[in-house]
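During data preparation, a discrete fold description was generated, and the record follows.
___
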Amino acid sequence: MRAAWLWVIAGGVVEAVYTTFMGLADGMTDILFTVLGLVFSIVGTVLLNEGLKRGLQMGASYAVWVGVGVAGAAIADVLVFENGLGLVGYLFLALILGGIVGLNLRNDGRAHG
């Protein structure tokens, strides 16, 4: 895996933390979690941009970034908010993760510029 993908994946993880903080912010009434959420949102976007600056394709990078964020948010929903996904939910989560791996493998050698 090229190092550029690590930036994108790290950004997706940070996005999952952002969504978790926003879930804890109680409709943005909890100032601490709201500020943390907004900061993590900016950091996640900066990390995605670092991967793009290293030559990754925008479409695949964004899809991986969002996919990692969605998967992380779903996991946080189970662990932090104690909401179950159910069998079908876990199946679809596995499909998202499989898509992330597939896009990463397919585009690993196709950087531009």
The mean pLDDT is 89.
